[in-house]
Design a protein that fits this description.
With about 425 residues, this protein is an alpha+beta fold. It has helices at about 55-65, 95-100, 125-130, 130-140, 255-260, 270-275, 275-295, 340-345, 355-365; strands spanning about 5-15, 20-25, 30-35, 40-45, 85-90, 105-110, 120, 145-150, 155-160, 165-175, 180, 190, 195-200, 200-205, 225-230, 235-245, 250-255, 305-310, 320-330, 330, 375-380, 385-390, 395-405, 405-415. Residues about 1-20 have low confidence and may be disordered.
Length: about 425
């Protein structure tokens, strides 16, 4: 006799003092697999999961195939062995009347550790945020708050519980059987790192400053000097850094400063340097020092991120305003985490930061002012992306935005 494919698995929940109670969580779970920008992830409905977030660990580890400390491939799950493919979004209607008054839907982003299986809820994912509105419409969790009949564009406003921030996604929709359906297959935009063109998704973070720390510049300084110890020799060292918290906190350092800290003098860093384990170890020490200065937890691998900035070559001809090599979970990202890209776009507009200095020098040299008042063209290992930031006259950060594309990959159930 065949065993039933679907089962109800008890999840043991203990709440402080008293007797534990048991809830049933489906195995498999209804799930959707989506690409958003240069990331892919599992999207789940909040109502299908245990009420207590602390009980998500075994479920999400099983879904992703973590922990996998030896092979780092997550072959037992939906993960892909890199941080951009080990992600989950949990989406539901607004959980309070206050949130319902300002957002159509709310979501929690979860980064699942590949080696250790730890769940990190300390930050948000910009790439997957671009598909929250699409998933919400597909699942009937909300209607778009604004539809332009002439352009066929709809906007869904979401509340991110990781950062307590509002994010708008605007994308083309059609009507099918009286229901709004996102049209993701228009040949409008081509993204670096993704083959072919797809529909334009405008991702706008509203008032993104202080996503984790409550302040755009957590130390109130555009540049700090960080103290750290060399992981091999144990010798003390220092490096300049801009600590910026917009969409997600990031530690920005300059490539020439890193080269000196590595004992390379004025040598220009190459792609080989950025993937060398000894360099990655130094960058992790710098990241942890930045986390301490920002009053964040240094051991939380997902936040803050660390990124190395450099100037484009002299023959750049306006191709890019700045070059970034960003790290996610200790590994060089093949493109750029979108929240880091957005944070860099904001940092470039904050006077006296390392990013602002680089962009100002490059634009003065090339005579290029960018594609808009707030747009910054960023070159990363996978290509080029334009990000924007809008500031009020008094310097207050109003929003940050970027264009993304996305694709539905699978809808069904996932075993854990």
């Amino acid at each position: 006799m065949l065993r039933a494919m679907s089962s109800r698995v008890p999840v043991r929940i203990t709440r402080g003092v008293g007797s534990p109670r048991t809830l049933a969580t489906a195995n498999p779970l209804p799930a959707t697999f989506l690409r958003g920008g240069t990331s892919k992830g599992i999207f789940l409905r909040r109502a299908d999961l245990p009420e207590d977030v602390a009980e998500w660990s075994s479920i999400f580890q099983g879904i992703m195939g973590s922990p996998d400390p030896v092979h780092r491939r997550q072959l037992n799950g939906m993960g892909g062995g890199v941080s951009s493919l080990s992600k989950i979004c949990v989406v539901g209607p607004p959980s309070t009347p206050e949130r319902a008054s300002e957002a159509d839907v709310e979501y929690t982003f979860v980064q699942v550790g590949i080696e250790d299986g730890e769940l990190d809820l300390s930050g948000n994912c910009g790439n997957l945020s671009s598909m929250i509105g699409v998933f919400a419409l597909d699942e009937g969790l909300c209607l778009s708050r604004d539809v332009d009949d002439q352009s066929g564009l709809a906007t869904v406003r979401s509340f991110n519980t990781n950062t307590n921030k509002i994010i708008d996604t605007t994308f083309p929709v059609t009507w099918s059987e009286g229901k709004q359906v996102a049209d993701l297959n228009l040949p409008e935009v081509e993204m670096a790192g993704v083959p072919g063109k797809a529909s334009r998704i405008v991702l706008q973070f509203v008032n993104p400053g202080g996503a984790r720390t409550g302040r755009l510049l957590p130390t109130s300084k555009p540049v700090d000097v960080l103290d750290f110890f060399d992981p091999e020799s144990g010798a003390p060292s220092q490096i300049r850094a801009s600590l910026v918290d917009a969409t997600n906190p990031t530690v920005f350092i300059a490539s020439h400063d890193l080269a000196r800290a590595l004992g390379l003098g004025d040598q220009e860093l190459t792609a080989k340097h950025y993937t060398t384990p000894s360099v990655e170890a130094v960058l992790e020490r710098i990241r942890q020092a930045g986390a301490e200065r920002m009053s964040l937890v240094p051991s939380a691998k997902a936040q803050p991120k660390v990124a190395v900035l450099s100037e484009p070559p002299v023959d750049n001809k306006g191709d890019a305003d700045i070059i970034i090599h960003a790290y996610s979970m200790g590994v060089l990202h093949k493109a750029v985490p979108m929240t880091v890209g957005l944070c860099l776009g904001v940092a470039a507009g904050v006077e006296d930061t390392l990013a602002h200095a680089i962009v100002s020098r490059v634009r003065a040299r090339t005579g290029v002012t960018g594609s808009g008042d707030f747009m910054v063209r960023i070159r990363h290992p996978g290509g080029v992306v334009d990000v924007g930031a809008e500031f009020a006259q008094d310097g207050t950060l109003l929003n940050a935005q970027v264009l993304r594309t996305g694709r539905r990959l699978m809808k069904g159930v996932v075993w854990w």
